[in-house]
Design a protein that fits this description.
Blueprint: H1 7-11, E1 27-30, H2 36-50, H3 58-66, E2 68-69, E3 72-80, E4 86-95, E5 101-110, H4 119-139, E6 146-154, H5 158-166, E7 170-181, E8 196-199, H6 203-216, H7 224-237, E9 244-247, E10 253-260, H8 263-269, E11 273-281, H9 290-304, E12 309-315, H10 322-329, E13 332-343
Parallel strand pairs: 5-6, 11-12
Antiparallel strand pairs: 1-3, 2-3, 3-4, 4-5, 6-13, 7-12, 7-13, 8-9, 9-10, 10-11
């Protein structure tokens, strides 16, 4: 694809972006703190009804209201019914520090009782136009940055898939969600000779892990801005009790395994689980079984600590054949999700 020089030409957006029409039966407003109690009820009920893979935390909802999270600008609108209850929300996330590639992400939730009324289609249109307008405002009309706007569609949601396709978005990448039942037989894999485990670090050593992470993912899908966002999200959810790093014989970091305890999901499902947020291995240490050993260590520690299951997600086109590694321990694919996007 050939990219035009001027960002304004490529984005082709009229500002300000209008709110969705009122004929859908909801009153549309910018998200504010006063909406929080009702918004929490909407998100919780919808995610339980949909059997969500992950659950939005209170902190993430607060970020939506505040309109910012780290280096990310967040813009949200809500649809309010005649009783003042929030029945729909649409959110746009824009990175503010991108150098070459701007990746805007879209998220939306519509109450199960308000679906099949055309709300999703209207919200996606608002999100697409709002993402374009915010990028234009942030990076300027003469910028040469590449722009991608995208959103996640879960495998059990064909309606959302149809909406994205109709809007001109195409499937970019699919991820499998795998789980290990910690009450079932699992296979343990030791570290290769010459390596040793170390606790999750702090301070300067943590910065070294971050740098390793950025380098380890260079041959994966995405770009440096996205890898940094994944790192920041992982740290926000990380639980050091089950996370670890691996050192080589010289004491240098060879790999890392960042594990989260999804507290919100615990509270809503009653199931004690852990989730592997990130696993990475320095390129020069690949082929030594380090990823398998790190995950194996975390899984068996989780079992000893009374956890019931352990989850992770994996790019089905992962160049390291990660899915096979995880399956060898005892992980099985249960769900999938696909990233749909449009390049501008």
């Amino acid at each position: 694809m050939v990219y035009m020089t001027k960002l304004a030409e490529r984005l082709n957006v009229c500002t300000p972006v209008p709110l969705p029409p009122a004929h859908l039966g909801l009153r549309w407003e910018e998200l504010k703190a006063v909406h929080a109690p009702s918004l929490v009820r909407l998100i919780r009920a919808s995610q339980i009804s949909d059997g969500a893979i992950s659950f939005t935390s209170d902190a993430e909802i607060a970020d939506m209201i505040e309109g910012v999270r780290g280096r990310t600008l967040i813009s949200s609108i809500v649809g309010v019914d005649s009783k003042g209850e929030v029945q729909a929300i649409a959110t746009v996330h824009i990175p503010t520090g991108a150098k070459k590639n701007v990746l805007a992400s879209l998220e939306a939730t519509v109450s199960p009782t308000w679906r099949r009324r055309g709300i999703g289609r209207v919200l996606l249109s608002w999100q697409d136009q709002t993402a374009r307008a915010l990028i234009l405002e942030k990076y300027g009309p003469d910028s040469n940055v590449k722009v991608t706007i995208g959103g996640v569609v879960h495998g059990n949601n064909p309606s959302a898939r149809s909406l994205f396709v109709a809007a001109g978005y195409t499937p970019e990448r699919t991820f499998d969600v795998m789980y290990a039942d910690l009450n079932s037989p699992l296979v343990s894999y030791p570290l290769a000779e010459g390596y040793l485990f170390a606790p999750w670090p702090t301070g300067k050593k943590l910065e070294e892990v971050r740098d390793l992470h950025l380098g380890a993912f260079e041959d994966h899908w995405g770009d440096r801005t996205q890898y940094l966002s994944w790192w920041e999200d992982a740290l926000a959810n990380l639980d050091a009790r089950w996370s670890s790093i691996v050192l080589d014989s010289k004491g240098e970091i060879a790999g890392y395994c960042a594990i989260a305890r999804p507290v919100t999901k615990w509270m809503l499902t009653g199931v004690k689980e852990l989730y592997a947020e990130l696993i990475g291995v320095n390129r020069k240490h690949r082929g030594q079984g380090l990823a398998r050993a790190m995950l194996s260590k975390a899984v068996f520690a989780a079992r000893e600590d009374g956890m019931e299951r352990f989850g992770l997600d994996v790019d089905i086109d992962n160049p390291s054949s990660a899915a096979k590694i995880y399956a060898s321990i005892g992980f099985e694919t249960q769900r999938s999700f696909t990233y749909y996007s449009v390049d501008l």
